[in-house]
Amino acid sequence: MSDKSDKKEKQHLSKEKTSLLVSLLFSFLISILLVLLSVLVILRISLSESNLQKLAADKTYQGIILGDIQNSAHDYTLPTGIDPSILDGVFEATEVSRDVKIAISNAFAGIKDSEPDTSELKNRIVTRATAFYAQSDEQLAEVDMEAVVKAYANDIAEIYTNGLKIIGIEYVNTINSYLTRYSPVAMLLVALLIGVLAMMCVRMHHYPHRGLRFVAYATGAAALSVFAGPCALYVSGIYTRINISYHSLYYILTAFISHFLFMFFAAAAVLLVVTVVLIVYIGQKRKKVIKAESDN
Questions:
Q1: Pick from 60, 81, 67, 66: nearest CA to 136
Q2: HSE-CB for 18 with a 13 A CA cutoff
Q3: Which residue did the predictor score with more confidence, 10 or 266?
């Protein structure tokens, strides 16, 4: 009888060790899959049109674009002999805001080489340039003046159009198109696999709360993983040292990266809350089991 009981005890211990090792392996796999799921969700959100529209709606960003356009137009005007003061107030912040929004929408709609409607801008420039020539000492024939003013207005409008362009947005649209097409399926498969592994962890143990511990380990590890890397990158500020001379591109790129990192912090917070909820639930279930065994 003693040999049989020892054998059963050894088998029981061997089974427990196996369950422990397998549960730890599943917990590790769940944590990796949770990190992967977080990355997929964050990429899907951060590269969406709505998110880029939100970033581009920033008044500071639009002010930088407006300032760059004004400086470029001023530099172009100086050699022409036209008084640069005619450009004062010719560019309007409301038009910049509108046209940046349209440019992003067109890029995500796949409309290439789209240009903003600059007819009102040209009219303002023509009116001011014509008034300048009318009051100046330069003696130009009426036809010559009209041609010069029209050419000048077209050139300034081209400067305005080029100043609105967001370099690389077509690549963002390409990546977003792939994410839109494939990420929902990928996220569903990853979520299902997480659910299956979590269920197996629970069923491998006599008491479900013991299996849930390994799920809690996984969510906690995933929360730490999702937080640690982005936090180190954010604190170091290394992304702010990107060498880009184009001011507006530098601003929106660093703003995008900053927002991207904060989304990882949000994901880590969600995973942490899930971990705390699991720990509380496991504690309650454990107390019930202990009470039931003591009553018996």
A1: 81
A2: 7
A3: 266
144-187 per-position pLDDT tens digit: 677 888 899 999 999 999 998 888 888 888 898 999 899 999 99
pTM: 0.84
Q: Has residue 227 got a pLDDT over 70?
A: yes
The DSSP result for 167-201, as a single string, is TTHHHHHHHHHHHHHHHHHHHHHHHHHHHHHHHHH
Q: Which residue bears the tokens 């917990």?
A: 27
At 111, the amino acid letter reads I
Across all residues in the chain, what is the average pLDDT? Answer: 87
User: Within a 10 A sphere around the Cβ of 203, how many other Cβ atoms?
Assistant: 10
Dig out the tokens for 46 from the structure: 């951060």
User: Quick one: CA torsion of 92, 98, 101, 104, rounded to 10 degrees?
Assistant: -80
**CA gap 210, 109 in Å, rounded:** 51
| CA-based max dimension of the chain | 123
